[in-house]
Write a structure and sequence with these properties.
Layout: H1 2-86, E1 94-100, H2 105-115, E2 121-128, H3 134-140, H4 156-169, H5 172-181, E3 182-187, E4 194-199, H6 206-225, E5 229-233, H7 243-248, E6 252-254, H8 260-270, E7 276-277, H9 290-293
Parallel strand pairs: 1-2, 1-4, 4-5, 5-6, 6-7
Antiparallel strand pairs: 2-3
Helix pairs in contact: 1-8, 2-8, 4-6
Length: about 300
C-alpha cells in the first residue's frame, strides 16, 4: 500500500515535471518565435527605410546638380551679355579706387573687371594709412593749421574733407600729403571723375579708432560734397558688412562686387544710379531699375 502510494506520488511528480518541462519548452519556443519574427520585421523595416533614404539622397543630389547647372548657365549668360549691358556707360571717365585700410587685391581685380568695356578706366589706386600718422601728416603739411595735426588731432576731420575734395578737383594739399597719407599708391592721385571706396573691417580702439573715424568721415564728406559718383563696395564674404556705413555717409553701394551682377551694378552706380545694390540683406535691389539700365 505504501509502495503504491509512493509510486503514485512519483508518477504524479513525474507527470507534473514533464508538464512543467513541456510548458517551459512551449514558452521558450514562443519567445524564440516572437524574437525571430521581430528580427524579421525589423530587418524588413530597416531595409525599407534604407531604400527610402537612398532614394531621397539621390533625389536631393539630382536637384542640387540641376540647380548648380542652372546657376552656371546663368553666370555664363551674365558674362556673355555683360559687355552689351555696360558698354560705353562710363566713356572717358577717370575712376579712382580708394581703400580705407589695407588694400585687397581681389576686390581691386573685381573693380578692374567691372570697368572693362564700360569706357571708363582705373587711373589710380590708393590705400589710406590707418590709423593716421598725425606726426607725419603734420610734417608734410604746408605752413598753416594742418601743420598742427600732431598737436590737435581733431583737425583730421577738416583735413579729410580737404583731401576728399581735392581727389575730385585737384589741389596742392593732396600732393604734399600723399606719402604720409597713403600706405599704397598705384597710378595717379587724381583728379578723378568718380571714386570707388572700399572700407576694410578692422578692430581699432582708443585714440587710434577716434583718429581713424575722424579722417574717414572727413574724406567721405569731402568726396560727396563734390556731387561726383562715390560708390562703396564689398564682396559677398565681407564681414561685418559695410553697407550701412556707406549709406549713412551718403554713398551708393554694391555688396557683391565679386559677382557679375555686382560689377554691372558698380558701373551703373558710377554712371549716376543711386542706392544700395546687391544680394545681401541691406541691399535695396540687385540692380538699378530698368528705366536707368535702358539709358
Amino acid at each position: 500500500m505504501e509502495t503504491s502510494r509512493v509510486a503514485a506520488v512519483f508518477d504524479f511528480r513525474y507527470h507534473a515535471v514533464s508538464l512543467a518541462a513541456v510548458l517551459v519548452a512551449l514558452a521558450v519556443g514562443v519567445l524564440l518565435g516572437v524574437a525571430i519574427g521581430d528580427a524579421g520585421l525589423v530587418s524588413s523595416a530597416e531595409k525599407q527605410v534604407r531604400s527610402s533614404l537612398r532614394d531621397d539622397v539621390r533625389g536631393a543630389q539630382a536637384k542640387e546638380q540641376e540647380a548648380t547647372d542652372l546657376l552656371k548657365a546663368e553666370e555664363r549668360y551674365s558674362q556673355a551679355s555683360y559687355p552689351f549691358v555696360v558698354g560705353g556707360r562710363l566713356q572717358g571717365a577717370k575712376v579712382g579706387l580708394l581703400f580705407l585700410g589695407e588694400p585687397d587685391e581681389a576686390i581691386a581685380a573685381d573693380v578692374r573687371a567691372a570697368l572693362e568695356g564700360s569706357g571708363g578706366a582705373l587711373r589710380g589706386t590708393l590705400a589710406v594709412n590707418e590709423p593716421p600718422d598725425t606726426a607725419a601728416l603734420a610734417a608734410s603739411a604746408p605752413a598753416g593749421r594742418y601743420a598742427q595735426l600732431d598737436q590737435d588731432p581733431k583737425l583730421l576731420g577738416s583735413f579729410g574733407r580737404s583731401i576728399g575734395r581735392q581727389m575730385i578737383l585737384g589741389g596742392d594739399l593732396l600732393r604734399s600729403e600723399a606719402n604720409a597719407l597713403f600706405s599704397t599708391r598705384a597710378g595717379g592721385l587724381g583728379p578723378f571723375d568718380a571714386i570707388v571706396v572700399v572700407r576694410i573691417p578692422r578692430n581699432l580702439t582708443g585714440e587710434a579708432a577716434t583718429n581713424t573715424n575722424l579722417l574717414e568721415d572727413g574724406l567721405m564728406a569731402g568726396l560727396t560734397k563734390t556731387r561726383s559718383s562715390i560708390v562703396g563696395v564689398q564682396s559677398t564674404t565681407t564681414q561685418p558688412t559695410q553697407v550701412s556705413w556707406y549709406r549713412t555717409r551718403g554713398l551708393s553701394s554694391v555688396d557683391n562686387i565679386d559677382l557679375t551682377a555686382g560689377q554691372a551694378a558698380l558701373v551703373f552706380a558710377l554712371a549716376g544710379a543711386r542706392g544700395s545694390f546687391g544680394s545681401g540683406p541691406d541691399a535695396g535691389g540687385l540692380l538699378p531699375g530698368p528705366e536707368l539700365a535702358a539709358r
